[in-house]
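Weekly structure sync, notes
Attendees: PL, DS, HV (note-taker this week)

Item 1: Rubredoxin
DS walked through the input record. Source organism listed as Candidatus Methanoperedens nitratireducens. Sequence as pasted into the shared doc:
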Amino acid sequence: MTKYQCTVCNFVYDTEKEKPKKIKPLPEDWVCVSCGICGRDIFVEIE
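Item 1 (cont.): predicted structure, written out as tokens:
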């Protein structure tokens, strides 16, 4: 299971819970669903 956290608003993207589950790692065009501003480059992988 891989998780990524937004370094601005702390939203956690869990690859096991997102749909489709085949998306691993974050999609290139990902935008944080919490703040709607932060892109993939702002997210860091967490354990």
